[in-house]
Amino acid sequence: MRIVVVNTSTVCERTLGVLRERGHTIDVQKLDAAAAAIRVRAPEVVLAWLHDGECISLMRDVSAADVGKTAFLIGVLPAGAQDRFISSAFAAGCHDVVRTPCPDEELVARVEVLERLRGWRGVKPAPITKPRAEEARAWTFLGDVVADDLETMVGRPLRVVRGTGTLAETRSASIPMVFARDHLELAISLAADAAACRWLGDNLLGDPAAGPDALDDVLREMANVAGGAVKRAMLPEGVVLSIGIPVAGDARTAQTLGTTATARTWRIFLDDGVSIALVAETRARPNQHVPARKLIEGMVLVSDVRNAAGVLLLPSGTRLTSTTAEKLGRLLDTAVVEVSPAA
Amino acid sequence: MPTILVIDDSMMVRQQVTRALTSAGYTVVGACDGADALEKLDATPDVRLAICDVNMPRMSGLEFLEHVGSRLNVVMLTTEGQPELMARAKALGARGWIMKPFKPELVIATARKLVAA
Questions:
Q1: Which of A75, A174, A202, A340 could be disulfide-bonded to A94 (CB atoms 3.0-4.6 Å)?
Q2: If DSSP codes are grouped into helix, strand and coil, which group holds residue A201?
Q3: pTM here?
């Protein structure tokens, strides 16, 4: 079997030797290169040495990198790992964990369990399709999910109706929520017209004439709360979102919300005739500035990449392969490169 | 009355938490992120408790926790609810985790419990 070993410290060479003797192909990777290696090599087993909370996020990255969900992920935990750490490892994507020191025969048995299961079932397990945010059942009732949390925030029951009609709102705030390492992000936006702004100022700030900065702050925090509610609602369906920092938008931004094909809209009534608009939509993730050594296969260069002497290394529009990503990382070291996310 | 540091990049949240805590008799100092909070702590050494958001610009709540460790009672107040984040905060010395949107009475009860302890 192809095994990628994610090495966070000193991996016991003797143990790896035992696995090699049994015919397995071992590929030891450092932390920062592990996700890229898994994406490229599609191993059947990943053995990751996990020491602390940081390593749990590593396991989440490793799990996300295994796009086809075909790898069996085994976390190797320190001897003193407590139950909560083990639960976190499973929640982060581990299929199995072992505590060190682990006898070689036990580790071999756990690594080879996948082969035994395949033999037992007689078929290779089909890859599990990565669930998408807009395919989740929760996607259809996000209006109620968000309103439930906003009710606690504003201290009164809120009524929700589907659709918003044409938006004439003057202020808005959006929170980007990234779905693992997808090239799409889910944006949850709230928009308020003048009447809603007065209501929010009066009820949340004690000032119906609150200024634009204060109102932007209120809408950003409401978007933040809405993002948290959406994240919790989608988690049981396997859609793992990470929340970004909410940003405020002007009237033009507010009125163009919900124009994408994926958008769903709701109107949340704060009071009789006073409402805010809620828009959920998936959109392309904006370009990112990535240190050259963190480039990965699939990313597309936004502009020409040149070395310090100005020599063109790769033109804009190039989709990186694992080789070109690795070479750029070596040649440019700490330079930052603008890329559009891996598709 | 004891002083409580409220750290959140949202002015509205700082205002709401401050309103709740001052109604219960506490003195409140506000900070807009972790870096600001460290400065406020230097200037106000008698702070007994910090109520701290997680996602903030400049310095996050967890980075703030790394700086203060268990020297100060810190309760996280956030929309985040990932078990691994909570475990990390606890390992760094956080004494509690309150989910947003919060009820003012829960913040007051938490303050009473930790400040009296």
A1: A75
A2: helix
A3: 0.62
Within an 8 Å CB–CB cutoff, is residue A247 touching chain B?
A: no
Least confident of A56-70, A118-132, A259-273: A118-132
**Closest among A291, A303, A284 to A342, alpha carbons compared:** A284
Q: Which residue does chain B place closest to A207, by CA atoms?
A: B12
pLDDT in tens, A179-212: 755 667 888 999 999 999 999 999 999 999 999 9
Say how far apart CA A113 and CA A127 lie, in whole Å: 17
Distance CA A50, CA A92 (A): 11
Smallest Cβ distance to A221: which of B10, B88, B99?
B10
Q: Residue A204: which of A153, A252, A157 has the closest Cα? A: A153
CB pairs under 8 A between A and B: 63
Q: Is A76 helix (H, G, I), strand (E, B) or coil?
A: strand
Q: To the nearest 10°, the Cα dihedral for A101, A104, A106, A109?
A: 150
CB < 8 Å & 24+ apart, contacts of A26-31: A27/A2, A27/A3, A29/A4, A29/A5, A31/A6, A31/A7, A31/A58
| Pairwise CA distance, residues A338 & A288, whole Å | 6
C-alpha dist (Å) from residue A131 to A63, A64, A139? 14, 12, 12
Interface test with A, best of B6, B11, B12, B59 (most A CBs within 10 A): B12
Q: Does the beta-carbon distance from B12 to A217 stay under 8 Å?
A: yes
Q: Which tens digit of pLDDT belongs to each residue from A282-340? A: 877 777 777 787 787 777 888 888 887 888 888 888 888 888 888 888 887 667 777 77
Three-state SS letters, A246-295: CEEECHHHHHCCCCCCCCEEEEEEEECCEEEEEEEEEEECCCEEEEHHHC
Q: Which of A77, A225, A231, A242 is best to mutate for the B interface (most B CBs within 10 A)?
A: A225
Number of DSSP helices (H) and strands (E) in chain A, helices first: 11, 17
Scan for tokens 């592990």, then name that residue. Answer: A34
The minimum CA-CA distance between A153 and chain B, rounded to whole Å, is 5
Q: What is the pLDDT of residues A176-187, one digit of tens each?
A: 887 755 667 888
Asked whether the predicted pLDDT for residue A146 surpasses 60, the reply is yes
How far does B89 lie from chain A, in Å, by closest CA? 10
Exposure of B28 in the CB half-sphere (CA atoms within 13 A): 24
Distance CA A230, CA A235 (A): 9
Q: Which residue on chain B is closest to A200 by alpha carbon?
A: B12
Residue B109 main-chain phi, psi, to 5 deg? -60, -40
Instruction: Return d(Cα A104, Cα A115) in angstroms, integer.
Output: 17
